[in-house]
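User: I'm putting together notes for a lab meeting next week and I want to include a structural view of one of the chains we've been expressing. I don't have a solved structure, so I'd like a prediction I can at least talk through. The sequence is below, exactly as it appears in our construct file.
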Amino acid sequence: MPTGHAYIQAMSTAHPPARPCVICGKPQAEGLSPFCSRRCADVDLHRWLSGVYAVPAEEEDPDDPPADPGPARDTGET
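Assistant: Thanks for the context. Below is the predicted structure for the 78-residue chain, given as structure tokens.
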């Protein structure tokens, strides 16, 4: 048996450490990653659809003048 590539076989059979469900913390179920159950997947979907995970943003008022870009840079051209 060749010993030069034994470490590759050992590395390929190792499983990555199990991570907990992102909703409840239980171990993840295969095929439902990153969730442990269909219920937790549905809870996450509801959070997305109801705006819980929304990124806050400030809306621009079209009547406001644009923000000051800052001091002009000297480009060296005359």
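A couple of points you could mention at the meeting. The two ends are 76 Å apart (CA to CA). The chain is about 25% helix and 0% strand.

User: Perfect, that's what I needed.
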